[in-house]
């Protein structure tokens, strides 16, 4: 029986820990630091640990005889948590710091894609203002400008005209709006189409696909408003037809894993390809993430039937070619409830009511929440992700929204159209 530790505190980590806690080969599930939702789960324990302090994490793992660590967020991966834990013999699922560059540096990712002929938007890489502006001269608009480093999802600007593009270049390269993350930028062609995510678990050479899913990155209904971390997701995603899936596997996933291997930095972990699919079914990489998506994880974990700990341990052993993965056939749909003002503003501290009143079968994953005495308070940003399952996506949607409507804190905000692209 395994003792497992999940690193992180978001909805993704609540969903991963919840799934692990249901595995019949897991004895105990810890989350560091976790959130109010993981604290409320019967078989999950939160651990107060500074996840940037790898020595503290190692010490905890050694004292508790942890058999498996799963790292949720990108920052500790990019900072080398897997390297540090594996160096002392702790099984830690995720990419090494070198492999995590696929997310940690957009310049690294774009050069990698170009070198291995993997389809992506045409681009240029710049660290000085004059050459960046010169590059714009014969380009069409809109054009996309990205800070190189991690910018918590805020480092991508879609500039509608030359003036906006030049101002963004000044902002990133001269005014250092994104600090070091923006000392190098990517300018790339704007791609049209529909976005989807394709997520696999990789062991360096083999992979197993996660169920398909689609996120809703814009804050407001109809994909309007500012870009966010994601306002809801569902799985499976009909846009990823079998034909599209085969293309993604053959043109993107396999060449990426092979490319990383041949570059000497084999990729182990969740590999998330953010994709743009055009109306001819052509697929291009928008970005890589080196971790599971949030909120995609929530509906996907609701559907996963295999033991997640066994999958991760097989991946660490390079044995993913020997595992089977089983899914619930039904649709899962998750609606994010955020504090009004998200992604800006920082409202918090409101008492969340109705968490126990959601209809049966609805699963509420927490993100920005905190327990205080007997009450659960909002802690800002994305607060909850309310998930439901059904054979019919429309009914899964209705069930999830029935859950959403039983929860209140006064300033809750959510999209009312999660899943609309698959239902239209
Ligand atoms: P990224 O963090 O690179 O995925 O970018 C965040 C969001 O910006 C994506 O989810 C897309 O909605 C949008 N985006 C990024 N790159 C492009 C592109 N080349 N063309 C169109 N939209 C893009
Ligand atoms: N849902 C998008 C992401 O996790 O980056």
Walk me through what this model shows:
Strands 12, 15, 18, 19, 22 and 23 form a 6-stranded antiparallel beta sheet that branches. Strands 3-2-1-4-5 form a 5-stranded parallel beta sheet. It has a 4-stranded antiparallel beta sheet with strand order 6-9-7-8, sandwiched between helices. Helix 1 (11-21) runs parallel beside helix 11 (297-303) and helix 8 packs antiparallel against helix 9 (162-174). With 424 residues, it is of the alpha+beta class. It is globular, with a radius of gyration of 21 Å. Helix content is 30%, strand content 28%. The site of glycine (GLY) has 7 residues, from loops.
Write out the distinct hetero groups bound to the structure.
adenosine monophosphate, glycine
Number of helices: 14
Instruction: State the end-to-end CA separation.
Output: 45 Å
* Envelope shape: globular
Fraction of residues in helix = 25-40%
Q: Which percent band covers the strand fraction?
A: 25-35%
Give me the oligomer status: single chain
Please outline the major beta sheet.
6 strands, antiparallel
How much is the radius of gyration in Å?
A: 21 Å
Report the uncertain regions.
Answer: none
Broad structural category: alpha+beta
Short description:
This protein is of the alpha+beta class and about 425 residues long. Helix content is about 30%, strand content about 30%. Glycine binds near residues 229, 289, 294 and 296.
């Amino acid at each position: 029986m395994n003792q497992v530790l999940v690193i992180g505190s978001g909805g993704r980590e609540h969903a991963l820990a919840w799934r692990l806690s249901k595995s019949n080969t897991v004895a105990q599930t810890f989350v560091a630091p976790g959130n109010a939702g993981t604290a409320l789960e019967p078989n999950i324990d939160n651990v107060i640990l500074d996840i940037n302090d790898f020595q503290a994490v190692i010490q905890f793992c050694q004292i508790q005889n942890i058999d498996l660590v799963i790292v949720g967020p990108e920052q500790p991966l990019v900072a080398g948590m897997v390297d540090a834990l594996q160096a002392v013999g702790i099984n830690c699922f995720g990419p090494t710091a070198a492999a995590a560059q696929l997310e940690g540096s957009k310049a690294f990712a774009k050069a990698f894609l170009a070198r291995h002929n993997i389809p992506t938007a045409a681009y240029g890489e710049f660290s000085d203002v004059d050459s960046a502006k010169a590059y714009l001269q014969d380009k069409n608009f809109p054009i996309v400008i990205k800070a190189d480093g991690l910018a918590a999802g805020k480092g991508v600007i879609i500039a509608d005209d030359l003036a906006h593009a030049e101002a963004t270049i000044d902002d990133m390269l001269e005014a250092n709006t994104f600090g070091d993350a923006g000392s190098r930028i990517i300018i790339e062609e704007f791609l049209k189409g529909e976005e989807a995510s394709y997520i696999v678990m990789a062991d360096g050479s083999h992979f197993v696909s996660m169920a398909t899913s689609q996120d809703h990155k814009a804050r407001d209904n109809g994909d309007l408003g500012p870009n966010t971390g994601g306002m809801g997701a569902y799985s499976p995603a009909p846009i990823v037809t079998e034909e599209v899936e085969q293309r993604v596997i053959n043109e993107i996933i396999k060449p990426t894993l092979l490319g990383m291997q041949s570059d000497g930095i084999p990729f182990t972990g969740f590999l998330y390809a953010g994709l743009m699919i055009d109306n001819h079914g052509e697929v291009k990489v928008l970005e890589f993430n080196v971790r599971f998506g949030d909120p995609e994880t929530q509906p996907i974990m609701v559907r996963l039937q295999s033991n997640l700990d066994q999958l991760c341990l097989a991946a660490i052993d390079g044995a993913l070619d020997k595992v089977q993965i089983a899914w619930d056939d039904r649709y899962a749909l998750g609606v994010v409830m955020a504090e009004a003002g998200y992604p800006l503003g920082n409202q918090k501290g409101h008492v969340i009511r109705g968490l126990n009143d959601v209809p049966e079968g609805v699963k509420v994953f927490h993100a920005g929440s905190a327990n205080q005495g007997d009450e659960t308070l909002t802690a800002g940003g994305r607060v909850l992700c309310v998930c439901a399952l059904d054979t019919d996506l429309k009914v899964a949607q209705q069930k999830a929204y029935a859950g959403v409507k039983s929860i209140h804190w006064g300033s809750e905000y959510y999209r009312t159209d999660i899943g609309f692209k698959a239902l239209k």
